[in-house]
């Protein structure tokens, strides 16, 4: 009796353990710093190496610091701070695809010494690894072995792709621009679609620019541009399951003043990194049950997890909050601008067909106090929850990228600051489905020969043909041929007659 292997691959996606660590960033402003007014931070991956049990990677923290120099000038310094870290897990294997997410959680200005600014940044690392796992299965062409084959759907990991693109935008200004104070860019992927050997990603890039006009007045504005890019992934079809996300490389964002005969404009270039992963859903025939008409067989059945990917969705919501200044802080007579706009997602879950995204929106307000004619800043933290209908099952792995948009801050009675913004989130979700197959079958001993020519089988109502044939150790065809007037499953308790050829 011979059994052959009939192994197949299924996609498995594992979450990387979420953790936080601190990175010390030392920034040289190029001149003596009197006061730091606003800090904008971003982070992205530089390189990674996946080995058995560990992922080693390098990253960069991008800093944009608006400060007041000792001679009273408002300036901005941009800097990068490299760091390295790792993930460790038994689920990490060489050859797996690793998607690492880096998020700035918080920061603390540790010290200001002359032109040097020391900032301690809290970084959160998370992500997932995706790969194909081999599932052991068997088949047999032995005439004495009866097989029950069932069709199952499985998902297989096809591959991934990353692509760097640059999105250009322009802001037309009526007045002349004296100085650009700060630019903050965000990217939101809104759609991921599959084609033949490629994936199409589209979305929106938004940039907020704060500048000083020729009359020394602070102004700000948002500019939006869309993108659509094809990423090559060999093996995808129009029916493939795809997911994706994007991130801005803040260190390479540029905002330049351009003057011509028509007036003045600010030219913005935003480099972004796009990441896409693709999966295919396939139907397979596998052995779910078996028996032999000649021998007893010991069967081993094992279960396996298969990761299924849901369509990507975008969730939007409006958030509001306020901050009352401490009594020891100078009152707000005029808001000049707000910087360091950021969103941190603290929790996300699915409940009763709805997704809930919880987080904290942050911004730093730079304002003027008339009493001493000096500049001050105050940080606003606004907790929020947004929700929307969602089709992925509960308990799935959620990857959420959120940005703050249309941020506005107003003041009331000099001490209360009101925050108003939109939150947009790109949500990728997958979930595990448990299945089982026969992985091994071993013949133990032959049945003794039958010493009778006929047998009456008393079958119960509701029994299927396979169940009866397996219990008696005969082929289904013999029961059907010798009991032609019986339909299965049985409507009533029935006596079946079986005839055997005696040798």
Give short descriptive properties of this protein:
503 residues, mainly beta, Membrane-bound Lytic Murein Transglycosylase D, Chain A, 2 domains, four-stranded antiparallel sheet, 24 strands, elongated
What does this structure look like?
There is one protein chain. This protein is mainly beta and 503 residues long. The chain folds into 2 domains: 4-132 and 156-279 and 309-434, no CATH class; 450-499, Membrane-bound Lytic Murein Transglycosylase D, Chain A. 3% of the residues lie in helices and 74% in strands. The protein has 2 helices and 24 strands. The chain has helices at residues 465-472, 476-482, and strands at 4-5, 8-28, 33-51, 54-69, 74-88, 97-113, 116-135, 138-139, 145-173, 177-195, 198-213, 218-232, 241-248, 254-260, 263-292, 295-309, 313-324, 334-351, 354-369, 374-389, 397-412, 416-446, 454-459, 494-499. The strands form 8 sheets. Strands 9, 13, 14 and 15 form a 4-stranded antiparallel β-sheet that branches. β21 (397-412) and β22 form a beta hairpin. The longest helix is centred in the C-terminal third of the chain and has 8 residues, at 465-472. The chain is elongated, with a radius of gyration of 32 Å. The protein starts with a strand and ends with a strand. The mean pLDDT is 93.
């Amino acid at each position: 009796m011979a059994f052959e292997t009939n192994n197949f691959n299924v996609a498995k996606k594992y979450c990387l353990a979420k953790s936080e660590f601190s990175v010390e960033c030392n920034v040289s402003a190029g001149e003596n710093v009197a006061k730091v007014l606003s800090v904008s931070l971003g982070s992205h991956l530089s390189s990674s190496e996946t080995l058995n049990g560990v992922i080693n990677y390098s990253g960069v923290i991008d800093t944009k610091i608006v400060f007041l120099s000792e001679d009273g000038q408002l300036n901005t310094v941009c800097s990068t701070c490299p760091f390295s870290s790792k993930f460790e897990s038994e689920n990490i294997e060489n050859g797996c695809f690793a998607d690492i997410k880096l998020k700035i959680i918080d920061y603390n200005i540790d010290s200001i010494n002359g032109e040097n600014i020391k900032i301690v940044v809290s970084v959160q690392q998370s992500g997932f690894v995706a790969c194909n796992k081999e599932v052991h299965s068997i088949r047999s062409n032995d005439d004495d072995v009866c097989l029950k084959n069932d069709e199952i759907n499985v998902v297989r990991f096809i591959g991934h792709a990353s692509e760097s693109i640059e999105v250009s935008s322009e802001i037309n200004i009526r007045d002349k621009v004296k100085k650009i104070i700060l630019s903050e860019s965000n990217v939101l992927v809104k759609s991921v679609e599959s084609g033949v050997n490629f994936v199409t990603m589209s979305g929106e890039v938004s940039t907020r620019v704060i500048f000083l006009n020729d009359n020394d007045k602070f102004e700000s504005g948002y500019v939006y541009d869309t993108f659509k890019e094809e990423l090559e992934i060999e093996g995808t079809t129009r029916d493939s399951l795809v997911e994706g996300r994007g991130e801005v490389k803040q260190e390479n964002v540029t905002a330049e003043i351009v003057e011509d005969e028509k007036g003045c404009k600010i030219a913005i270039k935003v480099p972004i990194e796009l990441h896409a992963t693709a999966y295919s859903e396939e139907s397979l025939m596998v052995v779910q049950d078996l028996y032999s008409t000649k021998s007893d067989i010991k069967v081993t059945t094992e279960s396996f997890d298969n990761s299924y990917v849901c369509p990507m969705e975008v969730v939007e919501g409006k958030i509001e909050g306020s901050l009352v200044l401490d009594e020891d802080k100078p009152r707000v007579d005029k808001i000049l601008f707000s910087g360091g706009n950021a969103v941190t997602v603290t929790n996300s879950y699915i409940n009763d067909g709805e997704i809930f995204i919880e987080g904290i929106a942050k911004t730093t307000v730079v304002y003027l106090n008339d009493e001493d004619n000096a500049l001050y800043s105050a940080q606003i933290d606004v907790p929020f929850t947004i929700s929307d209908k969602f089709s992925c099952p509960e308990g799935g792995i959620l990857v959420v990228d959120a940005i703050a948009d249309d941020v506005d801050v107003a003041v009331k009675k000099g001490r209360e600051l009101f925050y108003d913004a939109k939150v947009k989130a790109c949500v990728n979700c997958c979930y595990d489905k448990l299945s089982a197959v026969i992985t091994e079958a071993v013949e133990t001993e032959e049945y003794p020969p039958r010493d009778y020519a006929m047998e009456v089988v008393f079958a119960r109502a509701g029994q299927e043909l396979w169940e009866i044939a397996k219990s008696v150790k005969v082929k289904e065809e013999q029961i059907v041929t010798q009991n032609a007037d019986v339909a299965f499953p049985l409507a009533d308790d029935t006596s079946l007659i079986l005839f055997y050829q005696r040798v």
